[in-house]
Amino acid sequence: MESFPEPARSGRTKTNAPRKPASTERRGVHARYDALASSDDSLCERGRLYLGPAPLPVVAARLASTLAEGCTIVEETSGAVRAWDDRALAALVRQGSFEARAAVRLAAPIECVDETDLLAVVRCLRLEQDMLGADVRAIWSLQAIDADLVLHSIDPAAPLAMLSDAITDYTQLQIAEQRLPRFPRRFAGELLRAGIVEITPGDTKVWGSFVEIGVRLGSGAAVRECERTIVFDRPSATWHVDE
């Protein structure tokens, strides 16, 4: 682990009737995805995903453990900026008290990260610049802005993984179950192509053998109909997305 001090910052029922989950479980998923042009032709297509609500340390640790190998530089809420390997970051998140407001992923082992690299991230944070510009090895970054997490990425798998995890977590809360299979990334990609994805508790029904989740896609009136339906079948533990 490398660290650097705080940077200066500017301002079931078994019936066929739906069961209503408890209010503490009624959290929706709100995502907006933008494909961004890159000024460097050598880079992959860049993307920006707004996702809320979601805890930054948990999301960062999941992305770190499931995508490209490397290490993660994290700005903690205390202002300290440190580099973590995947195992150490996951252990901190499991403790439940780790808080952070920004993270950037480097496609490099932690032993290849030094104080100069941390200083570059600190500079980006201080000047409120894109953290992907802090290091040529950066492949995604996360920042907590208001109630949303904002992901910038040159790895197309990162936004898919984030939305997949968010939908899985939401479904687990509805049925009070853990360790559901992850919502397939190919389905997440189909949804993100609409640009805006909204899942609200009012469009979710929990039945005896399956969960039915309405999905509103794209911009438009708040009263528009759900364009897609996600179904999680409990006996077979499988996901389905219908028109």
How would the blueprint of this fold be written?
Elements: E1 2-4, E2 29-36, E3 46-52, H1 56-66, E4 71-76, E5 81-84, H2 86-95, E6 100-106, H3 115-127, E7 138-145, E8 148-153, H4 157-175, H5 185-192, E9 196-199, E10 204-206, E11 210-217, E12 228-233, E13 238-242
Antiparallel strand pairs: 1-5, 2-3, 2-9, 3-8, 4-5, 4-6, 6-7, 7-8, 9-11, 10-11, 11-12, 12-13
Structural notes for this entry:
- This protein is of the alpha+beta class.
- The chain is built from 5 helices and 13 strands.
- Strands 1, 2, 3, 4, 5, 6, 7, 8, 9, 10, 11, 12 and 13 form a 13-stranded antiparallel β-sheet that branches.
- Strand 12 (228-233) and strand 13 form a beta hairpin.
- Helix 1 (56-66) runs antiparallel to helix 2 (86-95), helix 1 (56-66) packs across helix 4 (157-175) and helix 4 packs across helix 5.
- The longest helix is centred in the last third of the chain and has 19 residues, at 157-175.
- The termini are far apart.
